[in-house]
Design brief:
With about 160 residues, the chain is of the alpha+beta class. About 15% of the residues lie in helices and about 30% in strands. Strands 1, 2, 3, 4, 5 and 6 form a 6-stranded antiparallel β-sheet that branches. A hairpin with a 5-residue loop joins β5 and β6. The longest helix is centred in the N-terminal third of the chain and has 11 residues. It holds the Pfam family MaoC_dehydratas. InterPro entries: HotDog_dom_sf, MaoC-like_dom, MCH/BMMD.
């Protein structure tokens, strides 16, 4: 009885994508990419303070914060902005094959965030602007807290190739 040998399937890195890659043309207005919720702790704030070197007492001195009208030390705004990082969502996996650059961001800080707050970040595609062989994806970046309050609102822009290589 003869046994047939089957050639092994060649290894292909594209078989290891987290989600199927899409082209610029396959993206749709209104698509939302959510990041996992996170509850901030004093340790998060202390780590960010160390990295940023921001030593303003509003971020770590409870008495100073209270004397100046805050209910507790305020989490660094840039730390809250960091929660909108696209890499916390599936978005970079979706555009990974056509991604060129993260080109722009802006934001408004709309409410205080304190240790113990849980944040819910999301990116929503609000515009797709083709430019020939490239295109710009514009997303609204938002962060809500556990009470449903919008604490950060902003915008990200990404440059993509309009066709996969």
């Amino acid at each position: 009885m003869a046994t047939e040998t089957v050639a092994p399937t060649p290894f292909n890195t594209l078989d290891f994508l987290v989600v199927p890659a899409r082209t610029f043309e396959q993206l749709q207005l209104g698509e939302i990419f959510r990041a996992p919720s996170r509850t901030l702790t004093d340790a998060h704030s202390a780590a960010f303070q160390t990295v940023s070197c921001d030593n303003h007492p509003v971020h770590y001195d409870a008495e100073w914060a209270r004397r100046h009208g805050h209910s507790a030390p305020v989490v660094h705004g840039l730390q809250v902005l960091a929660f909108t990082a696209p890499g916390a969502t599936l978005f970079p996996h979706v555009i990974g094959e056509v991604f060129i650059a993260f080109t722009e961001l802006s934001c408004k800080f709309l409410g205080e965030v304190h240790s113990g707050d849980t944040l819910y970040p999301a990116l929503e595609i609000t515009d797709l602007v083709p430019h020939g062989e490239t295109g710009t994806v514009v997303t609204a970046a938002t962060v809500h807290n556990q009470r449903g309050e919008l604490v950060l609102s902003g915008q990200h822009k990404y440059l993509l190739r309009t066709t996969a290589k």
